[in-house]
Description:
Helices cover 48% and strands 13% of the residues. It contains ten helices and seven strands. The protein is elongated. The two termini are 53 Å apart.
Amino acid sequence: MESVAAAAVPAGAPAEDGRTRDRVSALLLEHGPQSATELAARLGVSPAAVRRHLDGLVAAGRVAEREAPGGQRGRGRPARRFTLTDTGRSAFPHAYDDLALTALRFVAEHGGPDAVRAVAEQQLAGLAQRCSTAVDVAVEEAGTQSVDRAQVLATALTAEGYAATASAISSGGQLCQHHCPVAHVAAEFPQLCEAETAVISRLVGTHVQRLATIAHGDGICTTHIPTQRAVPLAQRAGNKARPTGPVPAGRATAPGAGASTPSTPSIDRERTPA
């Protein structure tokens, strides 16, 4: 019985379905909204076969079904037409990276590295604000309980498309980003990675060290977050308050230096060998 069932389904059926659905999507992109009958005529298959593929595309969110202008078609079912969604359109090639690179090359040529850095910081300003709000809400809800700010930040970054995770290690913690939306651009303009690292440093409230980045060929963007002592919420705002207790080990003031401690977390970076 198993051999008969297997023989009834061609081995290449899933791949063929995918190719047909890609052709359906391409026709909708080229000719706009169409009915199943119109698509069937262009593909040279039956309307029933096209409807099966359309059902799969609708379920995947790549195609939307809507009633055609004119409403009821005789005494039968209302005329239905199918159109691509934003998700469906995103499957086709885009030139966003090329456009971003062209723009940043122009900025670098006419304004220099500092101008590129300013663009990177501006581009991340909205992300930083949204993640900061998420961290602040988590801290307020926790009250007197401690909050793993790296874990909260990882959740916020995941919502932004970075597929981030946080984990504890003996020397502190690690924030890992499994996806980088601007990796191709950051490969040429490291200011984007530097600005992102600065945002992470501010949000976790301590200096951090970038160990690896997707933009430089690593599989994951990895940021090391050293162990830090608890700091009252009022002192964390903006990272401008000075610590009220002893300076943590490893960050003691050098002999002969002033007694003040830098108010802005430093950012250490380490390149991973190719």
